[in-house]
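Chapter review. Work through the record for 2-(3-amino-3-carboxypropyl)histidine synthase subunit 1 before attempting the end-of-chapter questions.
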Amino acid sequence: MAALTNEVQIVPAKKPTVRGPRRVANQIPDEILQDAELQEAIKALPANYNFEIHKTVWRVRQAKSTRVALQLPEGLQMFACVIADIIERFTEADTIVMGDVTYGACCVDDFTARALGADFMVHYGHSCLSESLYLPVCMFVCLSVTLHVGLYHPEEQAPRTPSYLVWAAPQRSQIQAELSIKGKLPIDSTAGIKMLYVFVDIQMDNAHFMDTVKFNFPPGKSLALVSTIQFVAALQAVSAALKPEYDVLVPQCRPLSPGEILGCTSPRLDRQVNAIIYLGDGRFHLESIMIANPEIPAYRYDPYSKVFSREYYDHEAMRALRLQAIDKARSAQRWGLIMGTLGRQGSPKVMEHLESKLESLGKPFTRVLLSEIFPGKLDLMQDIDAWIQIACPRLSIDWGSAFSKPLLSPYEAAVALQEASWKEVYPMDFYSNQSQGPWTPNHPNNQPVRPARRQTQKQALEPVLSTEQCKQGQCAPCGCQEE
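Structure tokens for 2-(3-amino-3-carboxypropyl)histidine synthase subunit 1:
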């Protein structure tokens, strides 16, 4: 018989865990996937565009929805009527096509959908950025598109003319005014809302993109690869293939996905990065990371035309114009605060912060709700000396000189009101979780207090005393202890 020792070990008895049968919660039923009539209806849509019709029909049926709101960017609105017909034919819901302009994920317009009586919303073509507050279901469908190079090439569009849903705007503005004035809930709050995110996968010629990078950069260079959400999957695949020969960085600016950038949100990179390579068409998103990293050369690969080009930005001119607007605004007697009502562009918390700052300085101000901001509209209010727009920071950067009065972004307003100092590198952190101040929506000061997560395991009644077997001298259980 082994000798008794004075060492005592107290281990709580483990309770058996009883689990029910596993369910595949996200598997579309075969009755929908194999529905011959549904398959035939889908053929009315272009074959190289995956609108996730099967999943949409399934989710609408699951939710027992009676009214579905469809929101598409302008480039996809030509398919809206076909999608609406399919949903109405294969579900019990009727549909509403929302025709207002949609610039990005910040324009998801659940306010208007709610005002129109919708209980289900489908937003096409963007990743989730603004979380819906009121709708019980909000489904984001990010398109999967197969590119046929040579058959299609997007052209740069001129600035859009204003479009209004006059009959819906009063209710939408009233809802946002309640949030702004009463401060009930922040704009990105979710409470018991069922959300579904389907990520983008655009198929492109990855091999040509990779060969282009290799042709232009010698091995060993440090390259930062970025893109819009539509090409993130291709970006990840190419970055993995390049890593054996290059120091590849796929930066992340949370809450965005790795490699994803927005026109107002991009990461600040290490100065040792040799080049920024942007995968995508157009310059709007690329300019964001160029502004945030003026010392790093930037390049663009267009997956449609397969053209690889060096891109430039006049940083000195931009900074000079913005400083001029800030200096002019400092002498303003009466301010105007514009709350953007185009979807979720406006942030009530940022609005409240700026209101408090102006009140503390004794500066009078006027609140204005606008879905889109134009020089002619603001010129009608001659008594305002300077404007602060809480909608899109790039509106001030790109178009601020077109306005007769200073039109500041929230960051520029913080500089003008001596709350922040002017940065030589203009911050592009509007939706970043690590933004520099409370003049951005996702700053910690503007986030709701989340309830503590419920512990999944009960704590031990008594701590486990250390034994001779544990060489670490820990008082909590560790892996070396015997059962």
